[in-house]
Amino acid sequence: MMLGFLLARAGVATVVLEKHADFLRDFRGDTIHPSTLQAMDDLGLYDEFLKLPHQEAAELSALVGNERVTAVDLSHLPTRAKFIAIMPQWDFLNFLASKAGAYPNFRLIMQAEAEGLLEEGGVVRGVTAKTPEGPLSIRADLTVAADGRHSILRAKANFTPKDIGAPMDVLWFRLSRRPQDTVEPFGRADRGQMLVLINRGAHWQCGYLIPKGGFEELKRLDIDILSQRVKELVPFLEDRVAELKSWDDVKLLTVTVDRLPRWHKPGLLLIGDAAHAMSPIGGVGVNMAVQDAIAAANILYAALRQGAVPESLLAAVQARREPIVKLTQALQLCRSSFRTAALPMS
Ligand SMILES: Cc1cc2nc3c(=O)[nH]c(=O)nc-3n(C[C@H](O)[C@H](O)[C@H](O)COP(=O)(O)OP(=O)(O)OC[C@H]3O[C@@H](n4cnc5c(N)ncnc54)[C@H](O)[C@@H]3O)c2cc1C
């Protein structure tokens, strides 16, 4: 959506396909980092954007055992926003869609599921999609696969991401928040367990780390096992763990960390999770995807105004973004192996 907006703004005719009828997702990419907020400022959208309901976190702290540690302090950043805005992803996407929709050369087609690539002589010339009205075929000078970590277009291009290995999964659930609770996001690591709490106004979004593949084993036990662990880690939640009534109240995030060796072929570029799924540590996934879009727009818009894009420019997008992706994934994995090394199931 960000790339579609930026290209339309730069005068390039752009079509965005979205397979769902809306952007509603629970517990998805809700952390809008200062880098993304800086982009919104550069686009002149900062004040309007932050009128949308959100929470602000300038500091991320954790209790390690009983010692409070400030894990992240954003107050010294050279950006306008010195905080993370926590906002539902659908609000962010709807906002971008409305801004992009102001350009006559932008078109968003909902309920259009890309199914295949139109290829001629080894060059991608567009996509085929299915819609409620029937099949759709779109020809394009450039096709960008930004279709997420299970990218169909990536498979159609015969690209296979390199699995970098993630030793953990995350259980997400919500518990109500009381006015007297702390405001900042907060984590507690103790005796081999870890719980992260994100302030969502009336409720806490809670993330509990488990060893990779451990959810099925845990689900054989009563949900009380999770309630018990939550209140051991964060005693002030004791009066509301009963809100967890069954495992249906818990959503599993299967953590994937992977990366494509090559993000492009003639006529096709992959960005965001389709090119590199990030670990949830640091809540960077959305922000990396947005920065990919900004790099792609800046590098490609002039050529796209003229028509076809030489593959060397697609390679330039990968060259611009890959080093930071690699570095961030390396940092995430080094931190997560430290954490899960001590995460017994029972
Ligand atoms: C449970 C969970 C929690 C997360 N929490 C955070 C967080 O707090 N902070 C953070 O920064 N990141 C978080 N992430 C990661 C973040 O959501 C992703 O890194 C980010 O959304 C990647 O953006 P993207 O545009 O590349 O892919 P996506 O956001 O996955 O978007 C892909 C879009 O393409 C659509 N699509 C897929 N296939 C097709 C198709 N064939 N045709 C048409 N449309 C298609 C999908 O419906 C979707 O809207 C989380 C991820 C998960 C799974």
Percent in strands: 25-35%
CATH topology of the largest domain: FAD/NAD(P)-binding domain
Could you report the average pLDDT, rounded to the nearest whole number? Answer: 91
The unique ligands bound to this protein are: flavin-adenine dinucleotide
Number of helices: 9
* Shape designation: globular
End-to-end Cα distance: 43 Å
- The strand line-up of the biggest sheet is 5-4-14-15-16-13-17
> What is the fourth-level CATH superfamily of the largest domain?
FAD/NAD(P)-binding domain
Count of individual domains? 2
Contiguous uncertain segments of 5+ residues: 337-346
Order of helices and strands: HEEHHEEEEHEEEEEHEEEEEHHEEEEHH
Radius of gyration: 21 Å
- What's the architecture of the largest domain in CATH terms? 3-Layer(bba) Sandwich
Secondary structure blueprint with pairings:
Blueprint: H1 2-9, E1 14-18, E2 31-32, H2 34-42, H3 46-49, E3 55-57, E4 59-64, E5 67-73, E6 84-86, H4 89-100, E7 106-110, E8 113-120, E9 123-131, E10 134-139, E11 143-145, H5 152-156, E12 162-163, E13 168-176, E14 186-190, E15 193-199, E16 203-211, H6 215-219, H7 224-233, E17 251-253, E18 258-259, E19 264-265, E20 268-270, H8 285-306, H9 311-340
Parallel strand pairs: 1-7, 4-14, 11-20
Antiparallel strand pairs: 2-6, 3-6, 4-5, 8-9, 9-10, 12-18, 13-16, 13-17, 14-15, 15-16, 19-20
The chain binds flavin-adenine dinucleotide (FAD).
